[in-house]
Amino acid sequence: MSNDKQHSSDEIDVTDPKLTKFDIVKEGLRRDGIEILHYEPAFPKAGTAEEKRIERFIAFCFTLTGLGALGFVVTYIFWPWEYVEGNASELSKWYTPMLGLCLGVALAGLGIGILTWAKKLLPKEELVQDRHDGGSSEEDRKITGATVSNVVDETGIKRRPMLKRALLFGSAPLGLAAIAPLGALIVPPGDDRDHTGFDAKKYNDGNPVRLILKDGTPVRPDMVSVGGQVTVYPEIPHGTTNKHADSPTLLIHLRDADSKEAAKYIKKNDKKYAESNWNNFFAFSKICTHVGCPASLYEQQTNRLLCPCHQSQFDIIQGAKPIFGPATRSLPQLPIDVGDDGVFYAKSDFLVPVGPAFWERDEK
C-alpha cells in the first residue's frame, strides 16, 4: 500500500460506522488492486450436522494435543529416568520413548487440527493482486486492522466455543512442555562425569577394580596377542551394562618397539601417565572425545584408533592424541597393573573425565 497513492473519488469512507468489517476488507482489497475471483463460505448455513462433526474432530485433535503435552510434562518430571539394575522391562528404559511419543502426539494433534480447520471451516477464496511498492497510509493501516479482525471472525472461533476451549486446552500444556525442560538447569549436574566404574573407592569398597571381558572373564596378559586389542570393563556389579556406559576401555598390546616409543612420548609430553601402562599394555577410554561414539577400530600396523562415526583418528604412540577428524582431546588413559593373581586391574580411575570435550574443560 502506498502513502502517495491518490485515491479516486469513488472510494468508500472506511470510517463510516455503517460499514461491516468485510465491507472494509473488500474496500482495502480494491484499493490494493486485488480482485476477488471466488469467495464461498465453507458452511453458508451455520450449525449443520456436517459442520458440527468437523468441529468435534478438530476439538478432539486439540484435546489430544493437550493430553500429549501434559503427558510430556508429567513424564519429564515424574517418570523414573535413572538406569535401574534389572531386566529390560524396567520403566527407566521407556523414559526417552515416552517423551518422544507424548510430544509426537501433541504436535500431530495440533498440526492435524489446524490443517483441518483451515481446509474445512475457513471460507474458500481466490484472489488476484497487482504488485506495488510503498509505505502504508493511516487508512491503509485501518484497513489492515479490519482485515486481521475479519480473518479471526472467518475462523468462526467466536461462535464455536468448543473449539476455543479445545484450542486453549491444547496450546497451554504445549507451552508448558516447551518450558518444563528448562527446569533441569536448576538442579546441579553433580560430579558423575568425574567417576567411572573403575573408581575403587566409590564402587568396590576401596579394593582395586579388576578388568573383565563382556562375559565376565578376568583379563590376563596372555589373552591379548601382540598388536591385538580387547574391550574391557570394570569387575563391579553391572559393570558391563549401561549403568556404567562411560567405562568401556580398550586394552592394547603394543609391539615392543612401539611400546618403548609410546612410553617415551608420554613421559616427555604427559607425565601424569608415565606409570599408567603395564609393560607393553596400554589402556585407553573407548569413548570418543568428539561426541561419545565408540572408538574401537584399531589398525595395528599404524597404531591408529579410528572412530567410525565421524572418522576421528587417534595415534596410540602419541598417547591417543587426535591426529585427524573433529575430536580435539586425547583419549583418557587408564592406569593399569597386573595383580598377584595374574589379572589386570585399574590402579586408579581415569585421571581426567572421559567423553567429549567442551568449552569448560581445560585439560587435553
Automatic annotation (TrEMBL):
User: Which superkingdom is the protein from?
Assistant: Bacteria
**Any idea where the Rieske domain is?**
279-345
* Entry membrane topology: Multi-pass membrane protein
Q: Where in the cell is it found?
A: Cell membrane
- The answer to keyword Transcription applying to this record is no
The family note in this entry says:
Belongs to the Rieske iron-sulfur protein family.
The record's function comment reads: Iron-sulfur subunit of the cytochrome bc1 complex, an essential component of the respiratory electron transport chain required for ATP synthesis. The bc1 complex catalyzes the oxidation of menaquinol and the reduction of cytochrome c in the respiratory chain. The bc1 complex operates through a Q-cycle mechanism that couples electron transfer to generation of the proton gradient that drives ATP synthesis.
The protein here is known as Cytochrome bc1 complex Rieske iron-sulfur subunit
